[in-house]
């Protein structure tokens, strides 16, 4: 629905504090400064800017208690086509146990200049839809209507929640700059929270004061809200790039956690603030342990004991995990809680990540293998903070087993993942073992590198150049290839060629496509271009398979460079020297060796051919931000050496 903004707003546009060029912070009021803003002065490359982002959390009387009401009002100005994507809005809301948050009072409008006025387009509520992110989080999603460069759009909404253990974070920073961010926390005397700052230690405005509104009443108690206000101006965009876990780990934000409940009768309840209390809560009351114990009791419904007779502990472990992988499908939903009963899981043959992994934990214990649930936060969910015992920080559970005294972490959701490895999405610092006794944190980092080796053989480059290519991948690279390719020759032809050369489909061969314990291998023949200019031939020895663009582009970086696991890449190329030609230029050998990185470039030549070997290894899974410039240099060296060409010239 469109309508022309009234004469009142026209007057406002013409008269709105034009001298000071102040931007309005009132929803529905668009002024001349907003209309004339064509770029953000502090970052002229920004595709859009948040003009204001206003938030408030307050407590509302509800059924002899309180609901938490969160309000947010946001306005964004779009500068370019690239900025239109910010019109795709997502509102996350939480559900767990008996808590179901509710999004309400949603309003949204787009304003486009039209002469001295604006055309306003109202969001149609029927275009909103709900997406289930995981077992605990949903997204209310909508696209702002009629957004284009020059548009201003705004939206506001409220969320009602009964979840008081941790209030909703206030996030001040995003991938576009923010001119003004304000958050107001209105506290009542019955709950006490601690708050943590991330990304800043100082606000432009931070103040606390008692509300001067009329007294509120809860039973016989009179009180006034205590207001805490936080304001930050001109917040730069968060420039994320490759090799990061979750942007949420590093952006500027405020987090809140309940530490004490002051009951009206005078009793004081200290809230769980220790990891041991959280583990004990899970052991006694929660479905994380209940479900695995139910599966342990239902062992005979799943497995025939005779199938495990006379097997070693390690073989029993592999048998049980393989059984779950072969007989139950993951529905791609990540969760730390099971979604159904063991009997329903047995009938349906599919479930979320907790269904499958907790089933495996129960069956392992029934088979005599010591096993426990290990809860964690996946990489895109963010890191676990040591001093912040929050159940909702975890979103996933895996298997921790001890066959023959070996501690093995496993995940039954990934068919192509070896049983002694966890998927890369789970490699996020550490997980919490759900086991009686002292709190046990289990490291999730991987120490052995994941490797891809590409062996290339080139003949007859002076006529119709054809190369034989063999690719061998191990560990996480093998998992990725198996999931992406398997035995699908069409995908190999499509993805490996990538318009660089033409692969002969009939030549494609895969080896160990589904044998997850060994490297994955595929081979093919491909025609390629050897550039001939006058009496010279220019050859890229590694067929442009080496990186050509540095993934680290920032001038500086303040957060770690996280590869998830060490990485090795090896390229071996054998090139037949064309008849009647000699070598005019050959890349020099090079070696870099230190505790962080290794690079080797070697050349062997004979009368008939050349063999070039190029390999590099990033030895660590995570590098501190202080190593950023060194890593940029290493990537530049990879690009430079890996893409140098050999030049042949006609002899005589």
Largest sheet: 9 strands, mixed
- Described by the principal axes of the CA atoms, the overall outline is globular
Let me know the number of strands: 41
Task: List low-pLDDT spans.
Answer: 1-20
Distance between the termini: 78 Å
Into which percent range does the helicity of residues fall? Answer: 10-25%
Strand content: 35-45%
Structural class: alpha+beta
Q: What's the multimeric state?
A: single chain
CA-atom Rg in angstroms: 30 Å
- Which strand order does the major sheet show? 1-7-6-10-3-2-12-17-14
Q: Report the mean per-residue pLDDT as an integer.
A: 91
* Number of separate helices: 11
Architecture overview:
- With 652 residues, the protein is an alpha+beta fold.
- Helices cover 17% and strands 38% of the residues.
- The chain is built from 11 helices and 41 strands.
- It has a 9-stranded mixed sheet, with helices on one face. Strands 27, 28, 29, 30, 31, 35, 37, 38 and 39 form a 9-stranded mixed sheet that branches.
- A hairpin with a 7-residue loop joins strand 25 (430-433) and strand 26.
- Helix 3 (275-285) packs across helix 4 (287-297).
């Amino acid at each position: 629905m469109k309508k022309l903004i009234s004469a009142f707003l026209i007057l406002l546009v013409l008269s709105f504090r034009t001298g000071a060029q102040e931007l309005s912070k009132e929803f529905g009021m668009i002024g001349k400064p907003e209309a004339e803003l064509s770029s953000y002065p502090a970052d002229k490359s920004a595709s859009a800017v948040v003009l204001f982002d206003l938030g408030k959390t307050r407590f509302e009387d509800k059924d002899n208690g309180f609901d938490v009401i969160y309000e947010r009002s946001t306005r964004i100005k779009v500068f370019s086509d690239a900025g239109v994507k910010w019109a795709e809005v997502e509102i996350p809301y939480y559900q767990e146990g008996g808590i179901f948050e509710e999004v309400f009072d949603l309003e949204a409008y787009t304003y486009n200049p039209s002469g001295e006025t604006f055309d306003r387009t109202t969001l149609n509520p029927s275009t909103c839809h709900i997406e289930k992110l995981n077992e605990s989080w949903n997204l209310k999603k909508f696209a702002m209507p009629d957004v284009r460069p020059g548009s201003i759009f705004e939206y506001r909404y409220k969320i009602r929640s009964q979840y008081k253990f941790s209030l909703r974070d206030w996030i001040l920073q995003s991938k576009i700059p923010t001119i003004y961010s304000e958050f107001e926390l209105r506290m009542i005397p019955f709950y006490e929270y601690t708050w943590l700052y991330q990304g800043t230690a100082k606000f432009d405005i931070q103040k606390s004061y008692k509300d001067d509104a009329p007294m509120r009443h809860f039973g016989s108690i009179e009180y006034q809200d205590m207001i805490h206000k936080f304001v930050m101006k001109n917040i730069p965009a968060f420039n994320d790039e490759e090799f990061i876990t979750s942007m949420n780990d590093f952006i500027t934000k405020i987090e809140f956690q309940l530490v004490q409940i002051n009951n009206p009768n005078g009793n004081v309840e200290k809230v769980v603030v220790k990891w041991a209390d959280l583990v004990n809560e899970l052991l006694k009351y929660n479905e994380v342990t209940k479900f695995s114990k139910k599966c342990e009791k239902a062992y005979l419904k799943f497995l025939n004991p005779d199938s495990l007779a006379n097997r070693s502990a390690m073989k029993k472990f592999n048998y049980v995990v393989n059984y779950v992988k072969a007989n139950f499908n993951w529905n791609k939903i990540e969760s730390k809680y099971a979604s159904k009963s063991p009997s329903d899981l047995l009938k349906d043959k599919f479930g979320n990540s907790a269904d499958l992994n907790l089933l495996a934990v129960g069956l392992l214990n029934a088979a005599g293998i010591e096993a426990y649930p290990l809860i964690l936060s996946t990489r895109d969910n963010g890191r676990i903070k040591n001093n912040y015992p929050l159940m909702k920080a975890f979103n996933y559970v895996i298997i921790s087993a001890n066959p023959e005294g070996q501690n093995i972490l496993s995940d039954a959701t990934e068919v192509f993942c070896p049983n002694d490895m966890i998927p890369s999405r789970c490699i996020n610092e550490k997980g919490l073992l759900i086991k009686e006794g002292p709190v046990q944190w289990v490291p999730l980092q991987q120490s052995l590198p994941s490797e891809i080796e590409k062996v290339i053989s080139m003949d007859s480059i002076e006529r119709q150049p054809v190369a034989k290519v063999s690719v061998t991948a191990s560990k996480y690279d093998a998992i990725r290839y198996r999931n992406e390719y398997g035995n699908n020759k069409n995908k190999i032809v499509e993805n490996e060629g990538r318009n660089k050369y033409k692969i002969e489909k009939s030549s494609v061969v895969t080896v160990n496509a589904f044998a997850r314990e060994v490297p994955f291998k595929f081979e093919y023949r491909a025609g390629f271009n050897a550039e001939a200019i006058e009496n010279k031939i220019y050859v890229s020895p590694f067929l442009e398979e080496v990186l050509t663009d540095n993934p680290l582009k920032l001038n500086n970086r303040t957060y770690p460079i996280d590869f998830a696991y060490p990485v090795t890449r090896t390229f071996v190329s054998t090139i037949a020297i064309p008849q009647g030609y000699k070598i005019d230029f050959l890349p020099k050998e090079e070696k870099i060796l230190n505790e962080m990185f290794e690079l080797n470039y070697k050349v062997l030549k004979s009368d008939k051919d050349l063999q070039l070997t190029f390999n590099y290894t990033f030895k660590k899974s995570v590098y501190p931000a202080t190593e950023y410039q060194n890593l940029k240099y290493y990537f530049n060296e990879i690009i430079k050496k890996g893409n140098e060409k050999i030049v042949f010239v006609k002899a005589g």
